[in-house]
Amino acid sequence: QAKKLRNSHAVFSEDLQKKSDERAVMESELRGAIDNGELYMVYQPQVEAVTGKVSGVEALLRWNNPLLGLVPPDRFIPVAEDCGLINPIGNLVVDTALKEIAGIHGDYERLRLSINVSVQQLVHGGFRDYIKQKCADYDLPNSLIKIEITESLFIEDFWQIENLLKLLSGDGFSISLDDFGTGYSSLSVLRKLPINEVKIDKSFVQDILSDPHDRALIKSIISIGQSLEIPTLAEGVEDIDQALLLRQYGCNLFQGYLFAKPMKLEDLKIYLQGFEPY
Ligand code: C2E
Ligand code: CA
Ligand code: CA
Ligand code: CA
């Protein structure tokens, strides 16, 4: 018995060791990723529920590393946040996405761009100036940019975040509340902060056809949105029946594999050709 315990302990610490090694490798590789051009953006269309028109795209970051392969952002963003790399990486996201979308702005004047911003990046003094400057440099109206933030993260610094979001809102940017319904959602956030869109997390959308509780939840999120005049966007829509039900409930925008997967700019251009320009 004692031996067994010792062994399981050994396996356990080996496991931990492996995890921390992986993280150390990831951190050191991430340090070189910007300079080596390993980071790039993909774009996923957001579609109007009623007309089926493409209203905008969400920029999503990708990291392709020679040693680690394609690392999902869910894994490397938290590492970047921990080791002080989120600001340079976040700036790269803003710069690249604005530049690329500015390149097709002439053909799609009303195409909007959603950008994920981590709270650390947001409260970092330079963010607001940086994004305003880039909009000016690339000649993109601020009103085309949606800044996606995740509300579970701003339990601390609420006052500071509230202030910043109000300033950004005053600059003409839209604010989108990501992953709504997960974490420590509180309805007062919708009232206190200048929120222009609520994104219903894909974990609720996934089971909307089979789970009456998720259905009830989504229905009430949409109706709260309607009463506060905040449009709702459902993410992770994979199935036409999900889309039909969400539209029946009054959801305004859809994003998900049913319409398109995230794609590089070149493929986005081809995708958009299938749609009438605004
Ligand atoms: P998110 O902001 O909630 O993004 C939605 C995620 O759902 C994306 O994963 C997207 O590819 C995926 N998705 C879209 N449609 C479907 C669908 O129909 N089915 C399923 N199963 N998944 C779908 P991705 O690109 O792996 O990003 C994961 C998370 O990483 C994002 O979640 C976001 O929190 C973070 N992230 C991505 N890019 C950035 C970035 O530039 N900056 C920051 N701070 N975070 C980012
Ligand atoms: Ca997002
Ligand atoms: Ca989400
Ligand atoms: Ca997220």
TrEMBL record:
Domain of life of the source:
Bacteria
Q: Where is the EAL domain?
A: 23-276
Q: What is this protein called?
A: EAL domain-containing protein
Q: Which organism is it from?
A: Allohahella marinimesophila
| From-to range in the entire protein, with total length | 491 to 768 of 774
